[in-house]
Structure formats: C-alpha cells, structure tokens
FprA family A-type flavoprotein (Dorea formicigenerans), 384 residues
Amino acid sequence: MTITEDIKYVGVNDHDIDLFEGQHQVENGMAYNSYVITDDKIAIFDTVDAHFSEEWLANIKNVLDDAKPDYLIIQHMEPDHSASIGIFMENYPDTTIVASAKAFTIMKQFFGCDYAEHQLVVKEKDTLELGKHTLTFVAAPMVHWPEVIMTYDSYAKVFFSADAFGKFGALDVEEDWACEARRYYFGIVGKYGAQVQALLKKAAGLDIQTICPLHGPVLNENLDFYLNLYQTWSAYEPEDKGVLIAYTSVYGNTKKAAELLAQMLVDKGCEKVAITDLARDDIAEAVEDAFRYDRLVLATTTYNGDVFPFMREFIESLTERNYQKRTIGLIENGSWAATAAKVMRQLFEKSKEITFTETTVKIMSALNEESTTQLENLAEELCK
Ligand SMILES: Cc1cc2nc3c(=O)[nH]c(=O)nc-3n(C[C@H](O)[C@H](O)[C@H](O)COP(=O)(O)O)c2cc1C
C-alpha cells in the first residue's frame, strides 16, 4: 500500500488473535501497522507482533529490494509493535534504532538487549534528516505508555501517531471507523484524557494531511472528523445524546425493569436508547456506550450486601477511566435488604461532575405498582 510516493505500508493483519491486550474481543482481527520511508536514508516505523515477523520482513524486502534500512524508529514498546526488533536486527544489523530513552529501558526489560551500539536517543522536538523528509519527534508520554514518541514528517505532512487514532480490526475487513476506534480509545487510552489533550494541542500546531497510526487504517481525508472525536473523547464530553441502560439480573426481574424503562424512554422519544446485559455482552462495548452517551442507568441486584460482580466490574471500568460529566439513574433490586443503589453511588464517590437523578428505583424482588411508578418517574426525569 502506498501512502505517498515514498512512504509505503508494510504492516500485517492478524486474524488468529483471540483477545487483544489479553482482554479485548476483536472479531475482525487486528492490524499491526508499519511504514517505510525511502529517501536518501531509509527509515522504518515500528515492528509487528512476533507471530508475524517473517511476513513483515518479506513486506519490507518487497519495498526495499536489496537496499538496507538506515533507521528503525520505535515509537511504542508494547510487544505488538516491538517484538520483531530482534529478528529485524539479525537481518539488518547495521540499522540505527531511534527511540526515546525510556523506550530503550523497556526494550532491555522485554528482550534483554537495548542495542547500545546502535542507539539514537530522541526526545521532544529532535529532528532526523532523511533527505527530502525531515522527521520531528513529538513526545506523547502516557498516550498510553510513558515511552511513546510520535513523529511528524514535515515534507510529506504525515503524522505517525503510534497508538493514537488507532482502532480494532484488521485492514482487510470493511467496517465503520468510529465504533471500533471508540471502543479501542476508551478501552485502552481512556484513562489518559489529559495526556491526549496535551498531544492534540501539539498536533494543532502541525500541518497534517495524513495520520499513520499503528493500528487501523491510514487517515487521509476529513481529518477534522477524527481530531474532533479525539477532542470530545479526551475531554470526557458526551459524543451523542442518549441513554445507556446497563443491567445485571439473576432471576430476570431486574432485566424486566431495565427493558420496561428502555421502552418508556423510546415511547417518550428519547434520541437513542442502548441496553446491555453486563453478564453476557461485551463490557468493553458497554464502556464505549457509557462514554458515548450523556445519560446512564445502572440496574442491578443486591448481592451479599454488595452489587452483582459484573456491575462492580463495569462501574470500576468507568471510574478508572475518569468517567465524568454524565447523569446517572439507579435501579436496585433485593429480596430482604436492598443496598445496591447505595453501593453504586459510593463507587462514583471520587468521580467528577456526576449528577444522580432524583428518582432511584427500588424493586423488592419483582416489579410492583410502586416500583413501576418509580420507573415512570425515572423515565420522565431522564427525558426532561
Ligand atoms: C448469591 C445471592 C446473594 C444475594 N444477596 C442479597 C442481599 O444481600 N440482599 C438482598 O436483599 N438480596 C440478595 N439477594 C437476592 C436478590 O438480590 C434478589 O432476589 C433480586 O430480586 C434478584 O433480582 P433478579 O430477578 O433480577 O435476579 C441475593 C441473591 C443471590 C443469588
């Protein structure tokens, strides 16, 4: 794949992966992107997962023929991008590895070797001349690891963005960008909104025509769309008006209440109503929807004086990612001492700008007239 006349794609698609980063479902696989700039000097951006080293080396050979790369730029040390450094250096032993000081430290930890004789340590604003192409390094600590550097090619106006602007999904599968990029962002980068905001400020000062991330497609049209979404996500602003109802249920009564509330909201003309069973559906997708919409309803059974485990896991997945600026309604169920609402409220104690609805629905085992009226009140409040 050609990005510009002298920037070529040499990445690989992974359809064998079961869980990305040990937890994220990736039905459409994953792409590990890598790029080659051929100029007076030849630079390669990042390596790929260890299972694909040979395919990646063949892709490089295809572009370079017998030419030898001068630089291997390591922007990010997660092994899906760094695990082929060793085999690369066996094949091209004279290459200089370009990375941050922190990246070399992590390299030694992972692979027992930091190529001390072949290092070029770079930091914010350092430049590397390849010929026509001048690369300027942009430090992006904690987007989403500490060693990350990104790279701006001022000749081609290409921004190599490491894991930022990436998404789940291999490149040979056609799918909507925003859904899988949002799930990727909130699953993996979501905690680091402040750091992403700092990066966006730096990016705003660059004339960028193409974004080359380490996962997902190369972005070269309508870049404002992607930049604006990253602005919204990293500022923890809701992207769309809508309500996510997330529930757990043992015997089906809380589920029934959640579904009834969804119907009430639809009947009232609520812009968008999404509903998810936290025990059965992908929690990462629920996290994505919770950040996407401006309102959230949590419905759960009381469980040994606590909330049902999947609900706790879900709420902790939100709070650890700085969930904020949202309205939350609560539905609790219990057969003798319903305490789930109190526990859920406590779980958000440290969260900023959370508004709880005045109505909290209390179900004692099964919906009755009183709790159904509370549901109606909650629906009314959420649609005000
Ligand atoms: C293992 C277990 C522990 C429970 N602990 C409590 C409890 O501490 N307090 C309470 O009021 N109900 C407790 N319950 C009862 C459920 O919360 C209650 O029956 C609820 O109505 C179930 O709602 P569901 O039909 O949506 O599953 C427990 C149920 C189970 C299975």
